[in-house]
Design goal:
About 15% of the residues lie in helices and about 60% in strands. It is mainly β and about 200 residues long. The chain has one domain: Lipopolysaccharide (LPS) transport protein A like domain (lipopolysaccharide transport protein A fold), CATH 2.60.450.10. The relative contact order is 0.08.
Length: about 200
């Protein structure tokens, strides 16, 4: 009699464990990201405290907007930070902004900080932005999707087929492509060279 009770109890436990695994893998949904390879947990030790972060290899985020436009950002690897889960620091970054009824804008940078809630992105170090025959390099580029604005700053060099321009700051409306160009010091002038 005890063997029969033991077998029934054992079978009951196996059914419960199997049900839990089945439920976990097939009915609990996670936020979908295009992430490949391994996620590694890394402990970075600082002088007095330890800060944990996640390193993700070959990461890609795709953001689609209601009007049919989309934004794709990818990097060789990115680091999730525990105390700011909406932000990811990305390395060796490529991005594509495809606005409705417009040619794509391509962005390349050594680094970027991406907000996976607002999609706003700050690119920094060796930033290159290209749109048709327009190419711009700078140290920094901030995309602010809520305002449809791209702001370039620090060591800006803009080139097209007939012009080279040097400035400190440039603001570009992503919808109209209209630009405002500034110098940090009002006494300085934007430098424009015509190419023939």
């Amino acid at each position: 009699m005890q063997n029969k009770t033991f077998i029934q109890l054992f079978l009951f436990v196996i059914i419960i464990v199997t049900s839990v695994f089945f439920f976990k893998f097939y009915f609990i949904s996670n936020k979908t990201l295009n992430i490949s390879n391994n996620i590694e947990t890394i402990d970075k030790k600082e002088t007095l405290n330890t800060k944990k972060s996640n390193l993700i290899h070959n990461i890609e985020y795709v953001s689609e907007f209601k009007n049919g436009s989309y934004f794709i950002i990818s990097s060789e690897y990115g680091e999730l930070i525990y105390d700011k889960p909406e932000l990811i620091n990305m390395k060796k970054v490529t991005a594509l902004i495809h606005l409705k009824d417009s040619n794509p804008i391509r962005i390349f940078a050594d680094n970027a900080t991406y907000n996976n809630i607002s999609y706003d992105t700050s690119f920094y170090e060796n930033v290159i932005m290209s749109y048709n025959e327009h190419n711009t390099t700078s140290d920094n580029l901030d995309l602010i999707f809520g305002r449809n604005l791209a702001t370039l700053s620090n060591n800006i060099i803009y080139k097209n087929l007939s012009t080279i321009l040097r400035a400190d700051k440039m603001e570009i409306d992503l919808i109209t492509k209209n630009s405002k160009i500034f110098m940090n010091n009002n006494s300085d002038s934007v430098k424009i060279v015509s190419i023939k």
